[in-house]
Amino acid sequence: MTTSPSSDALRAWFLGPRAENAELLERLLTEALRDHVFWRRNFHPEDGLTIREMDKRREGYDQAVATLTQELMGLLAELKRGVPFFSGRYKGHMAFEQTIASQVGYFAAMLYNPNNVAIEASPVTTRLELEVGSQLARMMGYDPERSWGHLTSGGTVANFEALWVARNVIYFPLAARGAADELGVELEVECPGGKRGRLGELDLWELVNIHPSHAMDLWDALWQAAPRKDVQAALHRHSLQTLGYQEYIARLDRAFGDPLPPSVVLVAATAHYSWEKIVRALGIGSNQLVFVPVDSHYRMDPDALWEKIRELSDRRVPILACISVCGTTEESAVDRLDRVLEVRERARKELGVSFHVHSDACYGGYAAAVTWDGEGNRRSAEAIRRSVNGDGPADPVRQGWPSQEWVRSMEALAGADSVTIDPHKLGYIPYPAGAIVFRDRRVRELVAIDPPYLLPTQGLGSSEDLFLGRFVFEGSKPGAAAAAVWLSHKVLPLDERGYGYLVERTVAGARKLYTTLSELDADPFRLILLPEPDINIVCFLVTHPSLKTLSEVNRLNEGIYARMSLSVPGAQPRYIITRTRFQTPMYDGAVDPVLERLGVGSVEDWKAGGTEGLVVLRSTVMDPFLADPDTPDHATGLARTLLEEAALALGEAKEPPA
Q: What angle do CA 350, 356, 359 make, to 5 degrees?
């Protein structure tokens, strides 16, 4: 059997479901520990010893060691009650084992305990983090010289920063107008319609609809128009981030007489629940979160987006940002971001409306690696399929993936104003490791704060880039996470040789599972599968002829979930999956074909069910070995277990809830 270099390397990237690479991991961890010990022993050896051999013979020392050993044994016993993410039997949440490279990188840097908030606390790992940010930016298609990115504790904080920046960008022209008037300077800016206009002559609607990149051009122009100290003071007196919403709105009322309605945030209906947290935390308000319908493949509907923008424009409601999703957490659906960007351009030309476009690619961002070859060139859908199939017949499991539309969606990430990516998801990195990248590095200045103890040393060649605490939300950041991501990227390049190949294998596994379930003889049960996933999450539900209501169908699937998850204390399921709920209004329209195939209940019944929604079983395939014919057939094993557990859950489904 002929294998590729990437296929061979895959076996060295992970510890393995049976810890097959234990010796490799142990050797590397030991090397990291010994190297750290060597560093300590050679740092000013003239200082002598603090802990002497005689100290280790004392009773208190022995007691402390005995306590440590005993408590560690207890901890190890407890940890075995954890989740077997490493196993081919785990097909639950977006988690798998981490790459060996990331584990070793995290362990090695953890011994030094760097805090990446400031260069003086992390002279090495801060540079590694900035390099990682540049790598992720290149994978998105951004210009590394103009973009900027960094790591966060996870996707929620990364998305928070994206909207934090977007809010400040949309309102910056208003602050610039006030500052320019105060300083007595006249500035020009490109207006939404494409013409240049005098800043002082624009009305409120025009000011909040300046394209993000043109708003940052205005930023540059303002700083060049007057002394820096004067500009800084004037902006401080006119910016939202200084004044707060109440005072800011009062000033707009006095300045323009007819303040606009509150700005809204457009989100795909499938967007992560954290977006509601974010708009609440930023003071925007959850009422201003406007859901855009998705299509039958759970992607944002570009036509619905246009209609929503047009309707908001008619009411002169500003749009702060539009949140597209690259890899939904429920279905791994990839929005047609290329079409979303086309809608924004159309809105700019026809309606004079503009806004920040953000791609929440926390889950699917690493799939962009599939579109790059080892030379830094884009790969077409045909080239990607050809590289998998070689000269032989097309792989029936991978037939049709990726489509050219999927590739265009990934390429369109380069046009988003910001993208969030979670290395601790499809990057296979230990927690915590989220990330955000901005297409225009200048936007970070709109959230910058200068605590005196983090200011760079003047005159010594220090770069402000190295003082991350100035631009980021978090006040402490583990440098170990940066080392983990950096080393993993070195071993698994962000292209077809590394992460691209890894993601392709998970897609192949997901499609194998999808095919296995679709061909399963489930009689008397019936499996209803959602459309084939854009990446690697397979969703389905089970029904039975004896079930006559949506509530009964939901109870059946809840019963299956209870038997195939760790949700019940002490449970030891043979295969592990998870579940979600399709609720109104998020899934309005998209759920219709599922209910039609289900043949039980109606859309009205579903909407009347409120939070009960429709229970959908969900299987995330992050295991790159599932489609390998030389490994255990866990796709068939999961399918058979599903039917066995469905038979046991059926009786409970017919009983009325307690």
A: 115
